[in-house]
Amino acid sequence: MAENIFTLMSGDTSMAQQYLSTYHRSEHLEPERALLAAILEDAIHECRKYRRAREPEGKERFHAAERWILDDSDDWIFAFRNVCELLSLDPAYVRRGLRESIGKSRDEEKPASRHGRRKRAA
């Protein structure tokens, strides 16, 4: 792949050096990106898994993940907004997708209603 980029640069060494610097920097960022993705994935998993929890521990896990996802501050490196932006994701889009996902699964879990049907006395 690097050979194709260099062919396009047609001998511009400064451009080639910029590419190599960026390419090598992205190699070093992969573990960090994987960590950020794992943090985000874990929070989403906690929201989905514990959204209907009845026990205190499950409720707390849900609320902790929900608070982190809904918090719009960026004053901490692992804030939801920063994690999304470092992963090139739109925080609002991720939130909307999670809300829709949780909403759909809640609807799917509701029992079918019996509109208009009543039991008759025998």
Explain what this protein looks like in three dimensions:
This protein is mostly helical and 122 residues long. The longest helix is centred in the first third of the chain and has 38 residues, at 13-50. 71% of the residues lie in helices and 0% in strands. The chain has a domain at 31-107. It is built from five helices and no strands.
Short structural description:
The chain has 122 residues and is an all-alpha fold. It contains five helices and no strands. Helix 1 (2-9) crosses helix 2, helix 2 (13-50) packs antiparallel against helix 3 (56-70) and helix 2 (13-50) crosses helix 4 (80-86).
Q: Please state the average pLDDT score.
A: 77
- Which geometry do the CA atoms define? elongated
Largest sheet: none
DSSP helical segment count? 5
Order of helices and strands: HHHHH
Oligomer: single chain
Structural class: mainly alpha
Head-to-tail CA distance between termini: 79 Å
Helical percentage: over 70%
Per DSSP E runs of 2 or more residues, the count of β-strands stands at: 0
**Uncertain spans, ≥5 residues at pLDDT below 50?**
1-12
Global Rg: 24 Å
Strand content: under 5%
Question: How are the elements arranged and paired?
Answer:
Layout (H helix, E strand, L loop, with lengths): L1 H8 L3 H38 L5 H15 L9 H7 L4 H19 L13
